[in-house]
Amino acid sequence: MSILEMGVSGGAMILVTAVLRLIAGDRLPRRAYIAMWSAAILRLLVPVRITSALSVYGLVPPALRGVQGLGTAQAGSPETVGIWTVLRLAGTLAAAAVFAASYIRCIRAFRVSVPAENMYVKRWLKAHPLWRSVEVRVISGLKTPLTYGLFRPVILLPRDAEDWEPEKLGMVLCHEYIHIRRFDGALKLLAVAALCVHWWNPAVWLMAALLDRDVELACDGEVVDRFGPECRARYAGLLIDLKAPGGTVPPVTGLGKSVTEKRIRGVMGHRRAARSAAAISAVIAAATVLLFATSSNPKAEKAPEQGGKSPELTVESLKPGELENIPAHLPEKRGEDTEPASPEHPLYREPAGPAGETYETYVIRPEWEQGCAGDVSGGEKSD
């Protein structure tokens, strides 16, 4: 698949997910939206065409299938293609440089942090083991807790966090622990990669913003589930107290990031999802991915019927000098436009056909004009 095909099909998946998110809202678990965002990211980054008989792109007229990757795209002029390639690569490199510089600057600033010495933090780490080594550190000047690192994740806390009461500190650590356990940092890093490659696509920027909100809302919901509904007001107040003055840079994730009225309402109105709701959301997410994140299957298109009549051969389907294996029972008019092929022809076919049907190999006469009338469709089969 080309970058344009990946961008268009991925953008369609993004818009469908955004509309579904707008309509369903909190009635679907946030993890369902994250699953659909993940499928859109893979569609944007993986140049592999996955076909499905359920793809909606099968409904696209053949004349328009080139853009969707369902047919042969029309190539532009070499000059146009060259200019577009240069601009796209320049934008990709510029976007990647900006994100990389911001992330490196943050990591350098975090180097002055020191390990947390709070006994509650040490007990919490022992009670929440992961196959990856998780470290909790503190640093001066930090306004909101955050997490960075994919293989050796670090939970970074403000210097005064060691003096927080256990419930507040436990909520903060739980939120960041959920980010680590779900690999939200890796997902956001893939979203950044999609932004760099498809910087020219507005739908990808929309996806990055909505994905960030859904990831935080999903973590908030699990914290409430773990601490109980009676903690919702205290947790919402914690989010407001730790609100960051500015955003962080992916794949850094922070508890106080993206604190909006929507997020506070999400915490206050959160209810643990029932199993039936989780099952329905899984079906909706899977159906959305099958419909909009796949391409149509060319083999699923209806083939010509192979009954007692041979496939129709028309003037438009034959070219001068082209070899054609024609069933022997076709009308005699065929001889006006064709001549027998020699056995030395590389595509020569033996007269004996499958199932007892006989074939004769012919070559269209070079002097035959394309405008010649005549439908050489077959009649009844003869042995």
- Please count the helical segments: 11
The unreliable regions are: 67-76, 302-323, 326-337, 352-359, 364-383
Number of strands: 10
The major β-sheet equals:
5 strands, mixed
Order of helices and strands: HHEHEHEEEHHHHEHHEEHEE
Rg on CA atoms, Å: 31 Å
Q: Enumerate the strands of the largest sheet in spatial order, edge to edge or round the barrel.
A: 2-3-5-4-6
* Backbone shape: globular
Distance between the termini: 47 Å
User: What is the beta-strand fraction?
Assistant: 5-15%
Structural category? alpha+beta
Indicate the percent of residues in helices.
Answer: 40-55%
Average pLDDT figure: 77
Summarize the structure.
The protein is α+β, with helices and mostly antiparallel strands. The protein has eleven helices and ten strands. The strands form three sheets. Strands 2-3-5-4-6 form a five-stranded mixed sheet, with helices on one face.
